[in-house]
């Protein structure tokens, strides 16, 4: 197990480095001028040259990258071209918002997908399976921003049980914090559950047709014992891999939902960074998303290893 | 009729397993596929009864029907399955569950895939105690260790806490056997229990199964395609082909004087003893499709002796005492 953790960590660092390089190049190659965005379209050529010199943008790309990287590993992500505030602290304050949103949405998605997927698989090609599959198709076809709007319309404006938007830190007022996160998490989680449900169903159908399930039935196990004791863990091992990708999508794809619900998260920062060609902001926030997604994958790999005794033994023997 | 023939084995109780006129059909796009057709078969106390046939003969479907685990698309159209005299057909699923694992247990073809990869062997072997006796897991584990010792697994204490992938194939089959005999069921259904194992391991498992029959007084329906295994294991044998029983009798009689051309061909195609020296002869053609069965004898298309009568299916004709075959050419011997 420790060996597994060590190998995953060892792979983590080069992956982050490679990603940072790709991000850096992409940001700089994309057309558009940071100076024009910062100074306005009326800026003179002289002003633009001065800005680029001040920010070091006139240096060769590899020099810029190494300079940025050297500071980044020490926690200095530079200052915003726009508001001249340091990017690092800004990110640190925004990260918990997005993490909370992504985790809540992920929990909601799984709470729907796992039991319904398992149920549909157990009733494969029967009526309940069709009903659940139609439900998943409908959920998958709904855009999350539309769902968000409908939720606000109903829960915030008509029934008035939830606030329409805004943010309060958890430490300050836990109840208020959670109530503010319910609708954004639902908008993301419901949509995301559609894909997870289908994956769970397919995986579960495969597991339920395997010999060891037949063994369990031949022992006289009831359906709930067969599903939860004998099938679920096996299905989860591969399901989790897809889950990690989905979590990455949730974390990286929260931009619109954060905007709708006025949540000051990382997604908003990415959006602002792109619009303003604010390279330090864009780089740092995009890299944060990458690191979180990679970390999620790593956690999932470790959980999968715990669920699957074959992996642990195979690796510790190797 | 086999009951009469096996009169000497008959006791004052019904057979452990009595299958009478069992017919199983699948609905397919090309019509009903009759995979088991009017099969009658008995397993008497402490007998090991062989059900032999090639793939697609319906032997596994027969076994699944006994366990009440036929696929959803299959339907038993006629016949009855009785366990110690009591019919299993028509029992509600909840009641069948109390029988599976306690009255009837299964030993599978491939122990590797039949063991759950994420559960410890001890928990899997002990589970019947939890399911049927309401035991807690601690008790179940103690019982599992005892059963693993019964099947001669070395270091059963330590092995019980290992996972299936840490077992060799032979050990896995021993574990499956321990699981099957956990609650001392009167009937074991073994579906090709040695097919997936190395030859040397096969012999060990067969010896173990015989020992279980002798010491636990278990009866066994032994499904196989391997005549050599039948010769070694079984007291009585049913030869199945395309859903039909073509021949039945005591093992000695069938091997000494096979009555049906199919059984004869099977014997010629099996490398046993002296026959191994001679050239093996495979049976030309293949088993007919269950949606497109021949009108008369099931074996007619592949039979070297067919003649005009074969368009009409023969009944099981007596070859000799304890031996019948479904062929017009059977000559009755004293």
TrEMBL record, chain A:
Residues 95-300 form the ABC transmembrane type-1 domain. It is a multi-pass membrane protein. It holds the Pfam family BPD_transp_1_N. The keyword Electron transport does not apply. It comes from the Bacteria. GO terms for biological process: transmembrane transport. InterPro entries: BPD_transp_1_N, MetI-like, MetI-like_sf. The keyword Transcription does not apply. This is ABC transporter permease.
